[in-house]
């Protein structure tokens, strides 16, 4: 390991850790205000609040890693620039690309850490946090059916409801499909349904069957149809929202809905976001390097300003494209990755410009 690499890493480590802690505190402020009211005025035990915060922490970390990477890059290079150390390094023959290498390695490392955290830890933690919120904090009974989520019984039957009102026991946009020995599953679609326990009464629907080539070979409409479902699927703990699914589970749900003809653009966008969000760590490291190198002599002040400007711009940009993807106005993969690709291009252009500048 080169002395220069160790030096730049040590300079970046402190601001990065400060950034992670600081941004987590900012993100938890609103939640803490809500929790304080529940503890003081509604008698919610403090241990329940602490447990909720603990399980919310992984998702907060994934959100803070990219910004903290940018903050660490900007603050460390800003400090070196302020003290003329960057000038001294470049005078001695160290190129901009050589200076960028250890910081980009940190960006790649944080991308991997963020991906693993987001894939292996965040889904289960979010699922447990949702249960804590409903069961312990808000004292609400667990719903029997979760809307906009596919769930499966032990007999290879899948169920989906676009909208669910547990108060009136009404559902809309019902889809049931059954995996059989045939190549394609039988599907049942219904406009609405009522449910009591394990019995669903479907209304105004159609039954479809397909041949081995995927062509429709049977269709029957109905005004009313009763189906009995297995009690196992009524457990809330077995039903997950999109944020509670890992990459494999989300992909399986997308494939299941696609086979039944449902619109999967929103779920596909969220699937690609599972790759795009961790990639932001590398993107922020890349774009922070050139803009910090030709920063004014204000050093740390410039680093703070740079972090705020790029953070705000990027996340507004990403939110807009995410909505475009979920709404079907852009292909999901482009909606997820366009902000990252745009900032990568800007970062590379700025880095080469700074490298050629004397």
TrEMBL record:
InterPro entries in UniProt: LptG/LptF_permease
Record keywords: Cell membrane, Membrane, Transmembrane, Transmembrane helix
Membrane-spanning segments: 12-40, 60-78, 99-117, 275-294, 301-321, 333-353
Domain of life: Bacteria
Subcellular location: Cell membrane
Chief place where the protein resides: membrane
GO biological process: lipopolysaccharide transport
Topology within the bilayer: Multi-pass membrane protein
Pfam families in alphabetical order: LptF_LptG
Gene Ontology CC, one term: ATP-binding cassette (ABC) transporter complex
Protein name: LPS export ABC transporter permease LptG
Source organism of the structure: candidate division WOR-1 bacterium RIFOXYB2_FULL_48_7
